[in-house]
Amino acid sequence: MAEAPQDRATAAASAPLLTQEETLTADTFIRGLWQENPVFVMLLGMCPVLAVTNSTINALGMGLSTTFVLVFSGILISLLRHWIPKQVRIASYIVIIATFVTLVDYAIQAISLELYAALGAFIQLIVVNCIILGRAEAYASKQRVLTTIVNSLGTGIGFTLALLALGTVREILGNGTILGISLFGPDFQPWLIMILPPGGFFVLGAWLLYFNWLRLNRLRRVTTFTGAPADAR
Amino acid sequence: MTRGIEIRTSPHLKRVVTVDKIMRTVVLALLPIAAFAVWQFGLSALLLLVTTTGVAVLTEWWFARASGRGNTVADWSAVITGLLLGLTLPPGFPLWMAAVAAFVGIALGKALFGGLGYNVMNPALVGRAFVQAAFPVAITTWTPAFAPGRFTEVIPSTLTAPFMQPIAVDDWIAGLNLDGWSGATPLALQKFEHIETPILDSFTGMIAGSAGETSALLILICGLWLAWQRMLDWRIPVSVMAGAVLMALPFWLLDPSLYPSPWFVLCSGGLMLAAWFMASDMVASPVTAKGVVIYGLFIGALTVIIRLFGGLPEGVMYAILLGNAVGPLISSWTQPRVYGAK
């Protein structure tokens, strides 16, 4: 949808801090997936990351729910961005987010009671997930609907992939299965600690170690190539 | 080369003791205990000790190389970690699990903190705590000591294929035709059935248990030798034992049929090995003279509390890990007063 030029002008006048609107590129999508991955780079939303990744299906359910809420709350906030008063914006965002969380809550309850029981309170807690509020405040409230959708999808899928990265490792080691399918036969020795809470910390730490190692290695290659000092980020 | 006058604060005369010399002495003190474990449990214990030590050294070497800290294997600290870890595991513990424990101990307990001197907790116990939580059944499966043919054949569970459940040892134990094998260690017998093993047996080590924790007498001798060599702070083991005795005494006086006697507390389980060789870890214990006494009493008392009221028969591992965790706090509480200051 195209906006009339005078609308933009009034918006800019009422909110002088409004950043420039982003033009849609592939980067809009990939950023949330990789460079600004909410879990492995920004370390946001750690609570569900650690709590519900004890199996692949839980991780997938949590990731998709969050992505849904992220995208749809993003759309609504982006549509209403010129009408939400600055003073009460957080409360307004929360109301919008909570609406979609309630939708997801009922939907999961209807689709799979088992998954609903496994995810427990963490579905409702999506309301206070800082990834969603962060996207709302930093992106959706300042950008056009189309770019918001793409950016939210990228962030949501990035979050889902991160959850899956933890969930699969924990399920394979802790239960010998992936999505409930046995991988190593009945004699497999499960590593109980991996599906217990400490396992979440260990696996998250291991992944962070790996990604930081990748980042440092790339930095070192760039440094040797350009001759720039090593601490130039 | 001419040297000018060197102006610096005391101490001016120092004993030339390097890290690797201390570590080598500790390894030397551990060798009789390891030898006793091999004599008592046979080939399986030997394989276990070789595996934990080998994996610990390899892990140390790899992490030191990856982080560019040079070769830290030569300081022998990884050998101690591996040996101690092997001595605290059941003799029939599957080798692949032992390798996991050694890797986690060095990697998570030491290398990620920055190597020797920076570890918050005793690396061997970190590794053991990890496998205790990961494989709770395997780590409480005990096999009899002095099994016939222990030098020619291994306990079946030792050679379990990686990532598989340990091979059941029940048939193997039944085939040994041992009299009076109950499948429990003295600690478990005392805790769950209130049967106290004769004190002489647990003092000399004629009992089942973890590979190197059985003979309190031998550990005492090796520990005393190490203390005499000034390679460990004698206050730590003494206060750990004192803490355990002081905690156990009132309960025993109250009801000797239900609670273990203080000497049984001292001689059973891993308390003796832990007091002399683990609590006294130079890096993870407090640095002040008053602090180590508090630290030791804390560990000893906590061990007895876990043993008497916790779900597990043995608690010295968690007690030491907790002691390590509060160590820096104890150090800062007990800073000595600077001479001349108010």
From TrEMBL, chain A:
Main location: membrane
Transmembrane intervals: 39-57, 63-83, 90-109, 115-133, 145-168, 188-211
One GO CC term on file: plasma membrane
Entry keywords, A to Z: Cell inner membrane, Cell membrane, Electron transport, Membrane, Translocase, Transmembrane, Transmembrane helix, Transport
EC numbers for this chain: 7.-.-.-
Keyword Amino-acid biosynthesis set for record: no
Root EC class: translocase
BP GO terms, sorted: electron transport chain
Domain of life: Bacteria
InterPro entries: NqrDE/RnfAE, RnfE
Keyword S-adenosyl-L-methionine: no
Membrane-related topology note: Multi-pass membrane protein
Function according to Swiss-Prot or TrEMBL: Part of a membrane-bound complex that couples electron transfer with translocation of ions across the membrane.
Family: Belongs to the NqrDE/RnfAE family.
Subunit and partners: The complex is composed of six subunits: RnfA, RnfB, RnfC, RnfD, RnfE and RnfG.
Name listed for the protein in its UniProt record: Ion-translocating oxidoreductase complex subunit E
Annotated organism of origin: Allochromatium warmingii (Chromatium warmingii)
Lineage, uppermost ranks: Bacteria, Pseudomonadati, Pseudomonadota, Gammaproteobacteria, Chromatiales
TrEMBL record, chain B:
Any single GO CC term annotated in Swiss-Prot or TrEMBL for this entry: plasma membrane
Its membrane topology: Multi-pass membrane protein
Annotated compartments: Cell inner membrane
Main location: membrane
Signal peptide range: none
Record-linked Pfam families: NQR2_RnfD_RnfE (PF03116)
Modified residues (FMN phosphoryl threonine): 185
Example GO biological process: electron transport chain
Family: Belongs to the NqrB/RnfD family.
Xref: NCBIfam families: rnfD
Subunit description: The complex is composed of six subunits: RnfA, RnfB, RnfC, RnfD, RnfE and RnfG.
PANTHER family on file: ELECTRON TRANSPORT COMPLEX PROTEIN RNFD, ION-TRANSLOCATING OXIDOREDUCTASE COMPLEX SUBUNIT D
Name the UniProt record assigns to this protein: Ion-translocating oxidoreductase complex subunit D
Species annotation: Allochromatium warmingii
